[in-house]
Specification:
The chain is an alpha/beta fold. It is about 25% helix and about 30% strand. The protein folds into two domains: about 160 residues, Medium-chain alcohol dehydrogenases, catalytic domain (Quinone Oxidoreductase, Chain A, domain 1), CATH 3.90.180.10; about 130 residues, NAD(P)-binding Rossmann-like Domain (Rossmann fold, 3-Layer(aba) Sandwich). Bound molecules: NADP nicotinamide-adenine-dinucleotide phosphate. NADP nicotinamide-adenine-dinucleotide phosphate (NAP) binds next to helix 1, helix 3, helix 4 and helix 7.
């Protein structure tokens, strides 16, 4: 038996004991080393993101292969898990739009995930990480892969002004990616702690609201990257883009929530708006960037918690200044 955190149903998350899974054909068994708690886990708990009952949550995780099943992968290797398993045959997959797959099976949502001591996982979606990597860092490959997709859509260029809204893990990674592109980067987030973290990880400027932003960039940004997942910041994003500018929305609002957008303004200023969903073909890039330190993830670890502390950490709002709580089952 093993300890696992199961979403029994919306609003009912429990630490329970369940059998250690057996890898099916094509799967490996992973001893989970680290799993990040994401905003989406809280959305799933609150019923703001579609969920499946009685599944173990946890979609940002990495660990050690302890049973390679029939796959031929090396037991003892450290891997990061791309949780999204596309079908490869639906209309969207055949067009290369795999993140829009009609039959995507997401580990940690549709099948048992990484908030557990062990996880059975499709070998084809596991990417090897170096043996000497800090085990906590493997948990950042998945959020980085999603952020990379958004930043690919936004296509930040050298010398451009890039505004990142929201100083959570997604926003703080977007800041680093924009800096790698050579952009001038401003982080807009309310807390002093996250502003300071943004500045120490690469942002040129950090502000708390629109008035402070306008004091620096009166005409707005070439690219606005919304990473807060809040109605007010989604609504303000196009207004904060300069005329002819671009917007990428990475943040997730609750299903059914609407925000006011002014089409006249978008049209007359020809604002391009993109919505970025998941991590199409970006997981291996993310793993490489975490492995070689191109993205500095160490400052994004706010605290390490045990499986038994995980229910509280998901059902409560994040602590003040917290970026990522990382679940370490061996704690
Ligand atoms: P997070 O930890 O909740 O970070 C969001 C941050 O936004 C908060 O830390 C908060 O920091 C800031 N914020 C909240 N209201 C704000 C406001 N009015 N103005 C400025 N900043 C504000 O979330 P995360 O894990 O980084 O994820 C960010 C969003 O991306 C979530 O909605 C998540 O569900 C979504 N997501 C999307 C994808 C995708 O594929 N598109 C993938 C993963 C995650 P302060 O307290 O400092 O303001």
């Amino acid at each position: 038996m093993m300890r696992a955190i199961q979403l029994v149903e919306t609003g009912n998350l429990q630490a329970i004991d369940i059998p250690v899974p057996k890898p099916a054909p094509g799967e490996i068994l992973i001893k989970v080393e680290a799993a990040g708690i994401c905003g989406t886990d809280r959305h799933l708990y609150h019923g703001e993101f579609p969920s499946v009952p009685e599944k173990v949550l946890g979609h940002e995780f990495s660990g050690i292969i302890v049973d390679s099943g029939d796959t031929g992968m090396a037991e003892g290797a450290r891997v990061t898990c791309d949780p999204n398993t596309w079908c490869g045959t639906c209309d969207q997959c055949l067009r290369g739009r795999v993140n829009l797959c009609s039959h995507n099976v997401a580990t940690g949502i549709h099948r048992d995930g990484g908030f557990a001591e062990y996880c059975a996982f499709p070998a084809s979606k596991a990417v090897e990480l170096p043996a000497d990597l800090d085990p906590l860092h493997g948990a950042f490959c998945e959020p980085l892969a999603c952020t990379l997709h958004g930043m690919d859509l936004g296509a930040a260029r050298a010398g451009e002004k890039v505004l990142v809204i929201g100083g959570g893990v997604i926003g703080l990674m977007a800041v680093q990616i924009a800096k790698l592109a050579g952009s001038d980067v401003m982080l807009m987030t309310r807390s002093a702690e996250k502003q300071a973290l943004g500045l120490s990880t690469g942002a040129d400027l950090a502000v708390g609201n629109e008035a402070e932003l306008r004091a620096h960039w009166p005409n707005g940004a070439d690219l606005v990257v919304e990473c807060a997942g809040v109605d007010a910041t989604v609504a303000m994003s196009p207004k904060l883009a300069r005329t002819g500018g671009r917007v990428v929305i990475l943040g997730v609002l609750p299903q059914g929530q609407q925000v006011p957008i002014e089409p006249f303004d978008l049209l007359f200023r020809e604002i391009q708006m993109h919505f970025s969903f998941l991590n199409p073909f970006t997981h291996a890039r993310a793993a490489q960037m975490v492995a070689d330190g191109t993205i500095n993830v160490a400052p994004l670890v706010s605290r390490v918690i045990s499986l038994d502390e995980t229910v509280d950490a998901i059902t409560q709002p994040p602590r003040k200044g917290e970026v990522r709580a990382i679940v370490v089952p061996s704690v």
